[in-house]
Write a structure and sequence with these properties.
The protein is mostly helical. Helix content is 76%, strand content 0%. The protein is built from eight helices and no strands. It is globular.
């Protein structure tokens, strides 16, 4: 039986949303997909490999957003706005990415996972630097702040916003569980 990577990612995402990144294991993934664990042997040697697959999926999604943002001739201001709208939409549709990004467990796990997460952040940072530098060159962005400081501030604000979104999603889920228990 051939498994699709997207199906594996979505099943892993459901586990993360339901129980957190710490609960993600090959056995749990097989149970979620209603398959035998031996079918996942060719995909994963250890549980952390599932998180790596999720990070690679996130990286591909982010790269695709950057490519799509670059393909149309827009002002740097429009590029900046569109990029964050698209990233926000991606994270709304795949909220498990937020759980992975903000996972404290991930930061404590192996260095390969940490490197993969840093690589994703770096690709966004590099693109933002390009957009901001182009905006400064075209005098769309008029500031004395260095582009690096602007990127750090923008990403920090977006990170705070998305962390708040993640917390709201968790509260809504908890309220739904409480309502179900009370009904």
């Amino acid at each position: 039986m051939e498994l699709k990577t997207t199906d594996i990612v979505e099943a892993a995402g459901r586990i993360i949303i339901e129980s957190g990144t710490d609960s993600l294991s090959i056995k749990e993934l097989a149970d979620e997909m209603e398959i035998n664990t031996s079918l996942l042997d060719s995909y994963f040697e250890k549980d952390d490999d599932i998180l790596m697959l999720l990070l690679k999926s996130l990286e591909n999604d982010i790269k695709q957003l950057i490519i799509e943002t670059r393909t149309v001739d827009r002002s740097p201001e429009e590029d900046l706005q569109l990029l964050f709208q698209n990233i926000h939409e991606l994270l709304r549709l795949k909220p498990y990415y937020l759980s992975v990004i903000f996972s404290t467990e991930l930061k404590e796990k192996n260095s390969e996972l940490q490197k993969a997460l840093l690589k994703i952040k770096l690709s966004v940072r590099i693109y933002l630097l390009e957009v901001i530098n182009q905006g400064k060159k075209e005098t769309v962005f008029k500031t004395r702040q260095t582009s690096r400081i602007l990127v750090t501030n923008i990403l920090g604000s977006f990170r705070s916003f998305m962390n708040e979104q993640r917390m709201i999603n968790k509260m809504v889920k908890d309220l739904e569980i409480l309502k179900a228990i009370n009904d």
